[in-house]
Task: inverse folding
């Protein structure tokens, strides 16, 4: 088990005065307004706020899925906001795992193959991919389900598989956007327990976006946004 108190001595993410604006026609919208924050290695963070407050936009900036209009984002000692798209793609695959509300599993692939996808992009040997998939299926409680297609699984099982896929390349950071948004309370609790287990055993830094105060209460720290600004 990782000593998270020791891990908290180091910053793994530093967001420096980022601004994000979108221009649609003649109208300019400020999605993020001068956001600065530091996140420690091994922290479990919840980002909360009303719809349209900038939660998902901030998560996308941290994950390198979008770039800020101004400011800097440093992730694992790399200034990602200045990376080329090709270098950013490689960095994300090695360093960051993503879990989304709508799962995004491939419907035509069995569960084990869905989980293997990140390893295919990193040119991992087939035998190693198979071994890693078995390890992850056990970790998220899906052993015995590997030959099922997504449509044959429950929502909670699919989200577990999505988490396993996100962990395939052993990322230092796991980002989750409303990971329990489509689940009932029992499955939501199970997913949060998996996140807590991952953080405690592996020291993974976890950041979740949620509108649910009960889910947010499990985090070490809650970051609240309103109209694109930190409260």
Result:
């Amino acid at each position: 088990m990782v000593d998270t108190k020791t891990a908290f001595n180091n910053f793994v993410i530093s967001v420096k005065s980022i601004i994000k604006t979108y221009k649609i026609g003649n109208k300019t919208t400020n999605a993020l307004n001068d956001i600065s924050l530091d996140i420690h290695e091994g922290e479990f963070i919840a980002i909360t706020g009303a719809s349209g407050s900038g939660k998902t936009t901030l998560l996308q900036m941290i994950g390198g899925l979008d770039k800020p209009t101004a400011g800097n984002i440093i992730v694992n000692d790399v200034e990602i906001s200045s990376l080329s798209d090709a270098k950013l793609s490689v960095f994300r695959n090695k360093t960051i795992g993503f879990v989304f509300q709508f799962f995004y599993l491939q419907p035509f692939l069995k569960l084990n193959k869905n989980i293997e996808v990140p390893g295919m992009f990193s040119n991992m040997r087939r035998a190693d991919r198979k071994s890693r998939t078995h390890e992850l299926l056990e970790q998220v409680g899906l052993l015995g389900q590997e030959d099922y297609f997504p449509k044959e699984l429950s929502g909670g099982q699919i989200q577990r598989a999505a988490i396993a896929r996100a962990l395939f390349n052993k990322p230092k950071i796991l980002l989750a956007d409303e990971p329990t948004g489509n689940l009932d309370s029992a499955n939501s609790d199970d997913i949060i327990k998996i996140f807590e287990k991952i953080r405690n055993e592996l020291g993974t830094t976890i950041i979740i976006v949620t509108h649910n105060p009960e889910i947010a209460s499990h985090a070490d720290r809650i970051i609240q946004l309103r109209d694109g600004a930190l409260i």
Notes: The chain is about 35% helix and 30% strand. The two ends are 33 Å apart (CA to CA).
